[in-house]
Amino acid sequence: MQRAEDREVDDKDDRGGGRPGLLTSTSTIFNTTTPAQRPPSKRKREDTHNEEGDEGEDEQEEEDRGERGLHEEIMPPYKSKVRVLEEYQIIGFISSGTYGRVYKARSKLPGNTKEYAIKKFKPDKEGEVIQYTGISQSACREMALCSELSHENVIHLHEIILEDKCIYMVFEYAEHDLLQIVHYHSHPERRPIPEATIKSVLWQLLNGVSYLHQNWVLHRDLKPANIMVTATGEVKIGDLGLARLFWKPLQSLYTGDKVVVTIWYRAPELLLGSKHYTAAIDLWAVGCIFAELLALRPIFKGEEAKMEKKSTVPFQRNQMQKIIEILGSPSKERWPAVTQQPEYNQLQTFKQYPNNLEAWYHQIGATNALGFQLLSGLLNYDPTQRLTAQSALEHPYFSEGAKLTLNAFEGQSFDYPHRRVSQDDNDISLPGTKRSGLPDDSLGGSRAKRLKEG
Amino acid sequence: MAANYWASSQRLHWQMSRQRLAEVRSALDAQDPKTVQQYPLPELRHLSIYFNSQIARLGRRMQTRQQALATAQLYIRRFYTKVPIRDTNPYLVMATCLYLALKMEECPQHIRIVVSEARTCWPDVMPSDTAKLAECEFYLISEMNSYLIVHHPYRTLQDLTPVLSLTSEENNTSWQVINDSCLTDLPLLYPPHIIALTAIFLSVVLKTSLPQTNIHAAASSAVAANSSGSGGNSGGGGAYGASGQGPQARIGKLIEWYAESKVDMEAVIECTQEIISLYEAWESFTPSAEKNCKDQLCRMIKARGIV
């Protein structure tokens, strides 16, 4: 199954905040002039931290300065104090996306047996000599937010290393993700995920989302591939590359990134062009993920209309159609503010549908009435009436029936495959090359990539 | 975290005592005393005022929001607690801090725009190569340990404006005092709400239109009045902004509210004194002092070849 899961972060950044061209991020920012050749400099960063710096060296520096003349450009080159390969042993390559590549690694520190996933952001320029080009806003957000966040259901950042023009974010390692788990249960034959597992996964996911929202962080890209699960059944929300703070932003959220959330998980207010969306968009995505865990396939599997021009965002007609077919037409009764949505006129052209969610729920074989209630609450058209993360956590679905556990795998014995780690492509120090158009999912993707790249 | 200052990286990793800050700075100077001696720089307050005016100049060219400027200023201050200023080109550092702050405050500008505007502001000392700024960004983020989210006092001011019925003039003055606090070490030393409370205190005490020269006297007397007891003038009820109440009564009410809210008044007074010292330094920041800043920096950059 080919998943249209490729990240759009870079593209989105490129579409930039109402200032066409300004945010063209780093991919087009290359200096056209060759930088002045740096004379070899004895002056290294470390010198400033060297307490034994002796006179002799100082004199040498003086000489260097003299040789350089007055107007040469020689700010001491940046050197990382920590080197990735000194600290970590790379076990193998996990996946790649438009942002760069992810590797599995182990610490070289004696006694530290933990495993890590190292996300290497590719320098934007391909081939030739790599240059500093400015860090993409998406990478800045992810570095800043991950450094700040600390919660058991949000992936833990171990450290960030900035070395040789590359950014390495070292995360705790998680063996599974929801995309892989859904795939396991649907291939080769359909084996429903046990209700206790779904309940635990959903509760932990909501718990993480609630933490993010309490801290004014919107994730904006929740989807199965971004929800990690550790070998011990703990859910970890990952990939905060599109996440941002929403406390009284200086610009509307829309101005920053015109398109957010992978299409199948995109809330109706986003599809209808809402400029001032809220945390409710993440809860819609959680609803879609809940439905997918139950059905073992995406509930609203629309086809994405591609952007023709960078400046205009196309109306995602097919995606809207898929939603309306199951949830029924978004009437004014169900969503009073629907008439104020920028793309409301588009809605008039759709056929009328009744709400078929309950029929859909039974058709996929689900029976838990409270589960249906919760799902309807998450997939509420009206963002102001949609359940919040906190209210969803308090839903009776979690307190009644099968007991809620914090280990999603408790009591079950499925043998989920380990994350695929490729051995023959594990040189983390090689410059990342752009693999555009390839999915960055962690399932089967690497195999497909191997074939294409091979 | 973002909503909670107490769990934020700012509080946990980037707030220090005055003594610690002094130690950190003298340790930096001690790394290379020869260079420190060879390239004298203006006193820190003057340097801060100069940096502020320069970064504001650059910011104005890009219609930068004040909050992004404040973030950039705090980045500069953090960076120079880790790196000796004489090892850097402060103009490149300023431009880089602003470039990064614009991204973090979600109003980004293209790196080429930032470099070219910075070149316009500082043609002699700003490198034209965007890769220089981008490299400096690595350095900056690395020295700040990737802790980039900054809590500013503006938020507390906004929250407290209705609570304390601040007039729009008082709100404006408070806002300006907060802007001014970015020129001091206060953001490294105190939580943002303390700085906001200081700004509000000053704005109520000072009234709005006092010229800067009088601020010192007015503030000193207010501090004195405060320490001599807050119970004296609490007569009259009603809203804080209500006319008919003398200014003293209003100050009394404010102090009462601070006391009830268990505000650390000692910290507020220390912040007040820091702000007042800044205003004094500002008065002595004559055009020739400004030129001196520029010349000394320029000489250092050129002689050390770190354009």
Automatic annotation (TrEMBL), chain A:
Homology family: Belongs to the protein kinase superfamily. CMGC Ser/Thr protein kinase family. CDC2/CDKX subfamily.
Name of the protein described by the UniProt record: Serine/threonine-protein kinase SSN3
Catalytic reaction equation(s): L-threonyl-[protein] + ATP = O-phospho-L-threonyl-[protein] + ADP + H(+); L-seryl-[protein] + ATP = O-phospho-L-seryl-[protein] + ADP + H(+); [DNA-directed RNA polymerase] + ATP = phospho-[DNA-directed RNA polymerase] + ADP + H(+)
Basic and acidic residues: bias regions: 1-17, 65-74
UniProt feature, compositional bias: Low complexity: 24-34
Name of one Pfam family that matches: Pkinase
Cofactor: Mg(2+)
A GO-annotated cellular component: mediator complex
PROSITE patterns xrefs: PROTEIN_KINASE_DOM, PROTEIN_KINASE_ST
The species this protein was found in: Tuber aestivum
Record GO terms (molecular function): ATP binding; cyclin-dependent protein serine/threonine kinase activity; metal ion binding; RNA polymerase II CTD heptapeptide repeat kinase activity
Automatic annotation (TrEMBL), chain B:
Gene Ontology BP annotations: regulation of transcription by RNA polymerase II
Key words, A-Z: Cyclin
Domain Cyclin-like: 53-142, 155-277
Pfam families: Cyclin_N (PF00134)
UniProt-listed InterPro entries: Cyclin-like_dom (IPR013763), Cyclin-like_sf (IPR036915), Cyclin/Ssn8 (IPR043198), Cyclin_N (IPR006671)
CDD domains listed in its UniProt record: CYCLIN_CCNC_rpt1 (cd20513), CYCLIN_SpCG1C_ScCTK2-like_rpt2 (cd20546)
Stretch forming the signal peptide: none
GO molecular function, one term: cyclin-dependent protein serine/threonine kinase regulator activity
Taxonomic superkingdom: Eukaryota
Family classification: Belongs to the cyclin family. Cyclin C subfamily.
Protein name from the UniProt record: RNA polymerase II holoenzyme cyclin-like subunit
Species annotation: Tuber aestivum
